[in-house]
Design brief:
- This protein is 31% helix and 43% strand.
- The chain has 2 helices and 6 strands.
- A hairpin with a 7-residue loop joins strand 4 and strand 5.
- The N and C termini lie far apart (50 Å).
- The protein binds 2-acetamido-2-deoxy-beta-D-glucopyranose (NAG).
- InterPro entries: Cystatin-like, Cystatin_dom, Cystatin_sf.
- Keywords: Signal.
- This is Cystatin domain-containing protein.
Length: 119
C-alpha cells in the first residue's frame, strides 16, 4: 500500500515537472510581442544611459521566447545607431530577481557585444 502511494506521488511529481519543463520556443505575437518590445526598449535605454551601446529600436522583425531559468528572448530587429540603421540579432536572457540578471547580447554585422544590467 505504501509502495502504491509512493508511485502515485512520484507520478504526480513527474506530471508537474513535465508540465513546466523549459525548452519550448514560442514565436510571439499580440500582447506577448508588445511585452517583448517593452523588455527590449527597457534594456536599450538602460544601456544607452550607461556603458552603451547606444541603440534605439527601429522595428522588430521577429521575436521568440523560451523559458529557461527566467525568459530568453531572441529578436531579429532593426536598430538605429546615430543616423545609421542596422539589422541585428539580439538575445535578452532575463532573470530579473538577480543582481545584473538581464544579459543582452547584440549580434550585429560589425560584431558581437554582450552587456548585463539589473532589472
Ligand atoms: C520602443 O522604442 C521605439 C523607439 O524609441 C518606439 O518607437 C516604440 O514605440 C517603443 N515601443 C514600446 C512598446 O514602448
Amino acid at each position: 500500500m505504501l509502495t502504491m502511494k509512493r508511485i502515485f506521488v512520484l507520478g504526480l511529481a513527474l506530471t508537474i515537472v513535465s508540465a513546466t519543463i523549459p525548452g519550448g520556443v514560442t514565436e510571439l505575437s499580440g500582447a506577448d510581442l508588445k511585452e517583448a518590445e517593452d523588455t527590449l526598449n527597457n534594456s536599450l535605454s538602460k544601456l544607452a544611459s550607461g556603458d552603451g551601446p547606444n541603440y534605439k529600436l527601429s522595428k522588430i522583425i521577429k521575436v521568440t521566447r523560451q523559458v529557461v531559468a527566467g525568459y530568453r528572448y531572441v529578436y531579429d530587429v532593426e536598430l538605429i545607431e546615430g543616423s545609421k540603421t542596422k539589422v541585428c540579432n539580439v538575445v535578452i536572457w532575463s532573470q530579473p530577481w538577480l543582481e545584473n540578471g538581464i544579459e543582452v547580447t547584440f549580434n550585429c554585422p560589425d560584431g558581437q557585444v554582450v552587456r548585463k544590467h539589473s532589472a
